[in-house]
Design a protein that fits this description.
CATH class: Alpha Beta
Shape: elongated
Distance between the termini: 41 Å
Strand content: 15-25%
Number of helices: 5
Largest sheet: 5 strands, antiparallel
Helix content: 25-40%
Strand order of the largest sheet: 2-3-1-5-4
CATH superfamily: Ribosomal protein L5
Oligomer: single chain
Order of helices and strands: HEHEEHEEHH
């Protein structure tokens, strides 16, 4: 048990009792948990230059600690010179310990490095307890060496939870330490 990620220990010891008390759950199985984190990096320019996709795959591997899968175009779009089956991005799904390690690094190190950071938007929940947000540049991650970056790529991150409502998911992420924007009512 001593090699568990720090965030997982915090979830078990602090977050679970808090959520059980707040939402009056009868069973510990009702307490929402994070099931997976999906990272997605679209590289539309890879149509013209395949080196950009290779660089994106390498960067996503450094960020996540896992080798990403390559995303291919599902259909042809003539305006973008895109053919069905062309490689246009990379994605990776994190679970278990790797997921908690990534989330810890994201909350503690990477998100505070975002320029002019005011907090993550509260409106980005999907209605089913999952949270989506984007990062404009992959350089906020300390694993990426700024000198090796060919092009600044955006990164979409989806945090999937077992929460039934957005309110439960918000409380779960907030109690773990996710930095949300302060609402008007919290400022007073």
């Amino acid at each position: 048990m001593d090699n568990l990620p720090r965030l997982k220990i915090k979830y078990r010891e602090e977050v679970c009792p808090y959520l059980k008390e707040k939402f009056k759950y009868n069973s510990v199985m009702q307490i929402p948990a994070i099931t997976k984190i999906k990272l997605n990096m679209g590289v539309g320019e890879a149509i013209k230059d395949s080196k950009l996709l290779d660089a994106a795959i390498e960067e996503l591997t450094l960020i996540s600690g896992q080798k990403p899968a390559v995303s291919k175009a599902k259909k042809s779009v003539s305006n973008f010179k895109l053919r069905k089956g062309m490689k246009i991005g990379a994605h990776v799904t994190l679970r278990n310990s790797i997921m908690y390690e990534f989330l810890d690094r994201l909350i503690e190190i990477s998100i505070p490095r975002i320029r002019d950071f005011q907090g993550m938007p509260v409106e980005s929940f999907d209605g089913r307890g999952n949270y989506n947000f984007g990062i404009k540049e992959q350089t906020v991650f300390t694993e990426i060496k700024f000198d090796n970056v060919i092009r600044a790529n955006g990164l979409n991150i989806t945090i999937a939870t077992t929460a039934k409502t957005d309110e439960e998911a918000y409380e779960l992420l907030k109690s773990i330490g996710f930095p949300f924007k302060k609402s008007k009512t919290e400022d007073k």
